[in-house]
């Protein structure tokens, strides 16, 4: 094994270990459990941040990730499972994974919802074998308690992300670079 192959193997082994440490209790629990967690997450979102109801009403679909666990120590990763809702009904299940490298240490958990504001954005997401969140996503942020900024509610962005419920010791929670893949629970 060459030095380069060993390094690649060690990085892969480390990333696998970190993702295993990111276990968030959703593996192997089935569609019924994921749907129940999605219902609970949406209820919490709309109750704690009433401004997000306007996003729901304007969107053509929502990808709900009830619990994403992220951990890092130089090499990091995150994992979560959730459901895509269209017209209030679950149409598919997805996993969210991310790998990261750099100066980082800690762990956190959070929930997020992607609001698809156009049919084109939703169709592109569903047609993709593995959709990666990028710079084209606009983040809705709370500016005072339960209020969302008016700019976010009236945004023309095709996808709006709401990240909430952060708990842990890793600073910041974004979904840039997160890859979403369809799964069978």
UniProtKB/TrEMBL annotation:
Domain called Ysc84 actin-binding: residue spans: 98-180
InterPro entries: TAT_signal, Ysc84_actin-binding
Entries under Pfam families matching the protein: Ysc84
Protein name per the record: YSC84-related protein
């Amino acid at each position: 094994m060459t030095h380069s192959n060993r390094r690649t193997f060690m990085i892969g082994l480390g990333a696998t270990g970190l993702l295993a440490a990111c276990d968030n209790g959703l593996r192997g629990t089935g569609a019924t459990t994921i749907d129940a967690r999605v219902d609970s997450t949406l209820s919490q979102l709309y109750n704690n941040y009433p401004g997000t109801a306007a996003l729901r009403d304007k969107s053509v679909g929502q990808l709900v990730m009830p619990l994403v666990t992220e951990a890092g120590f130089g090499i990091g990763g995150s994992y979560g499972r959730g459901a895509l809702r269209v017209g209030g009904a679950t149409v598919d299940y997805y996993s969210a994974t991310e790998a990261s490298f750099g100066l980082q240490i800690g762990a956190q958990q959070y929930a997020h919802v992607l609001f698809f504001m156009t049919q084109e954005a939703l169709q592109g997401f569903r047609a993709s074998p593995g959709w990666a969140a990028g710079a084209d996503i606009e983040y809705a942020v709370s500016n005072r308690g339960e209020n969302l900024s008016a700019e976010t509610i009236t945004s023309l962005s095709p996808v709006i992300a709401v990240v909430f419920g952060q708990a842990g010791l890793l600073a910041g929670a974004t979904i840039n670079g997160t890859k979403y893949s369809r799964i069978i629970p």
